[in-house]
Amino acid sequence: MTPTCASLEAEYAALTFPRFAEAEAQALGAQLIALAGTAPVVINIRTPDRVYFHAALPGSAPLNDLWIKRKSNTALLFQLPSFLVGARNREAGHLLSRNGLAEADYADNGGAVPIKVAGVGVVACATVSGLPQAEDHALVVAAMQAFLAG
Protein backbone atom coordinates (compact mmCIF):
# COMPACT_ATOMS: atom_id res chain seq x y z
CA MET A 1 0.00 0.00 0.00
CA THR A 2 1.32 3.42 -0.96
CA PRO A 3 1.53 5.82 1.99
CA THR A 4 -0.61 8.93 1.91
CA CYS A 5 0.73 12.47 2.10
CA ALA A 6 -0.80 12.75 5.58
CA SER A 7 0.92 9.59 6.82
CA LEU A 8 4.27 10.69 5.38
CA GLU A 9 3.86 14.14 6.98
CA ALA A 10 3.07 12.60 10.39
CA GLU A 11 5.97 10.18 10.10
CA TYR A 12 8.43 12.98 9.31
CA ALA A 13 7.07 15.22 12.09
CA ALA A 14 8.14 12.57 14.63
CA LEU A 15 11.74 12.49 13.34
CA THR A 16 13.34 15.39 15.22
CA PHE A 17 16.89 15.04 16.51
CA PRO A 18 18.11 16.76 19.70
CA ARG A 19 21.47 17.43 17.97
CA PHE A 20 23.28 16.30 14.84
CA ALA A 21 26.95 16.54 13.88
CA GLU A 22 29.71 14.23 12.64
CA ALA A 23 29.43 11.71 15.50
CA GLU A 24 25.67 11.33 15.04
CA ALA A 25 26.13 11.00 11.26
CA GLN A 26 28.59 8.15 11.76
CA ALA A 27 26.26 6.41 14.23
CA LEU A 28 23.24 6.84 11.94
CA GLY A 29 25.29 5.57 9.00
CA ALA A 30 26.25 2.48 10.99
CA GLN A 31 22.58 1.97 11.89
CA LEU A 32 21.66 2.18 8.19
CA ILE A 33 24.31 -0.40 7.26
CA ALA A 34 23.07 -2.74 9.99
CA LEU A 35 19.44 -2.44 8.87
CA ALA A 36 20.35 -2.74 5.17
CA GLY A 37 21.87 -6.17 5.75
CA THR A 38 22.71 -7.60 2.34
CA ALA A 39 20.64 -5.09 0.37
CA PRO A 40 22.57 -3.66 -2.62
CA VAL A 41 22.29 -0.01 -1.59
CA VAL A 42 24.29 3.17 -1.39
CA ILE A 43 23.93 5.14 1.85
CA ASN A 44 24.76 8.82 2.12
CA ILE A 45 24.44 11.41 4.87
CA ARG A 46 25.28 14.98 3.90
CA THR A 47 24.70 18.66 4.40
CA PRO A 48 24.19 20.87 1.35
CA ASP A 49 27.97 21.23 1.03
CA ARG A 50 29.63 18.36 2.93
CA VAL A 51 29.42 14.56 3.02
CA TYR A 52 29.39 13.17 6.57
CA PHE A 53 28.96 9.49 5.67
CA HIS A 54 28.96 7.42 2.48
CA ALA A 55 28.86 3.66 1.93
CA ALA A 56 28.33 1.64 -1.24
CA LEU A 57 27.29 -1.85 -0.19
CA PRO A 58 28.02 -4.93 -2.33
CA GLY A 59 25.78 -5.16 -5.36
CA SER A 60 25.07 -1.42 -5.56
CA ALA A 61 25.94 0.45 -8.74
CA PRO A 62 27.39 3.84 -9.71
CA LEU A 63 23.90 4.84 -10.86
CA ASN A 64 22.79 4.67 -7.21
CA ASP A 65 25.21 7.52 -6.43
CA LEU A 66 23.47 9.68 -9.04
CA TRP A 67 20.08 8.86 -7.49
CA ILE A 68 21.51 9.77 -4.05
CA LYS A 69 22.53 13.20 -5.33
CA ARG A 70 19.21 13.89 -7.04
CA LYS A 71 16.99 12.69 -4.17
CA SER A 72 19.01 14.44 -1.46
CA ASN A 73 19.04 17.69 -3.49
CA THR A 74 15.23 17.53 -3.52
CA ALA A 75 14.92 16.76 0.20
CA LEU A 76 17.33 19.54 1.17
CA LEU A 77 15.70 22.12 -1.12
CA PHE A 78 12.13 21.40 -0.01
CA GLN A 79 13.18 20.45 3.54
CA LEU A 80 10.87 17.45 3.29
CA PRO A 81 11.38 13.76 2.52
CA SER A 82 11.76 13.22 -1.22
CA PHE A 83 8.99 10.58 -1.03
CA LEU A 84 6.60 13.19 0.40
CA VAL A 85 7.57 15.74 -2.27
CA GLY A 86 6.85 13.10 -4.91
CA ALA A 87 3.55 12.08 -3.32
CA ARG A 88 2.41 15.69 -3.23
CA ASN A 89 3.48 16.20 -6.84
CA ARG A 90 1.69 13.06 -8.03
CA GLU A 91 -1.43 14.03 -6.09
CA ALA A 92 -1.45 17.49 -7.73
CA GLY A 93 -0.38 16.23 -11.17
CA HIS A 94 2.84 18.26 -11.03
CA LEU A 95 6.45 17.58 -11.97
CA LEU A 96 9.56 18.99 -10.32
CA SER A 97 10.26 20.84 -13.57
CA ARG A 98 7.27 23.02 -12.69
CA ASN A 99 9.61 24.64 -10.17
CA GLY A 100 12.37 25.07 -12.75
CA LEU A 101 14.31 22.08 -11.41
CA ALA A 102 16.34 20.01 -13.86
CA GLU A 103 15.74 16.25 -13.84
CA ALA A 104 19.52 15.74 -13.97
CA ASP A 105 19.83 17.38 -10.53
CA TYR A 106 16.56 16.61 -8.70
CA ALA A 107 14.31 13.58 -8.22
CA ASP A 108 11.18 13.24 -6.09
CA ASN A 109 11.53 9.49 -5.64
CA GLY A 110 11.62 8.10 -2.12
CA GLY A 111 14.79 7.55 -0.16
CA ALA A 112 16.01 10.95 1.06
CA VAL A 113 14.89 12.19 4.47
CA PRO A 114 16.06 15.54 5.87
CA ILE A 115 17.57 15.52 9.33
CA LYS A 116 16.00 18.25 11.42
CA VAL A 117 17.23 19.38 14.82
CA ALA A 118 14.85 20.76 17.45
CA GLY A 119 15.06 24.55 17.58
CA VAL A 120 17.35 24.65 14.52
CA GLY A 121 15.65 23.08 11.51
CA VAL A 122 17.05 20.97 8.68
CA VAL A 123 20.81 20.47 8.99
CA ALA A 124 21.51 17.43 6.79
CA CYS A 125 19.91 14.62 4.81
CA ALA A 126 20.11 10.82 4.99
CA THR A 127 19.58 9.04 1.69
CA VAL A 128 19.42 5.44 0.46
CA SER A 129 19.32 4.25 -3.15
CA GLY A 130 19.17 0.76 -4.58
CA LEU A 131 15.76 -0.61 -3.60
CA PRO A 132 12.27 0.35 -4.82
CA GLN A 133 11.56 3.91 -3.64
CA ALA A 134 9.16 2.95 -0.84
CA GLU A 135 11.77 0.55 0.56
CA ASP A 136 14.57 3.13 0.28
CA HIS A 137 12.38 5.55 2.24
CA ALA A 138 11.36 2.96 4.82
CA LEU A 139 14.99 2.00 5.45
CA VAL A 140 16.00 5.59 6.19
CA VAL A 141 12.98 6.14 8.43
CA ALA A 142 13.57 2.89 10.34
CA ALA A 143 17.21 3.83 10.95
CA MET A 144 16.25 7.31 12.16
CA GLN A 145 13.57 5.88 14.46
CA ALA A 146 16.02 3.34 15.90
CA PHE A 147 18.67 6.03 16.36
CA LEU A 148 16.24 8.37 18.12
CA ALA A 149 14.93 5.54 20.33
CA GLY A 150 18.48 5.09 21.31
TrEMBL record:
InterPro entries: PduO/GlcC-like (IPR005624), PduO/GlcC-like_sf (IPR038084), YBR137W-like (IPR010371). Pfam families: HbpS-like. Signal peptide: none annotated. It comes from the Bacteria. This is UPF0303 protein.
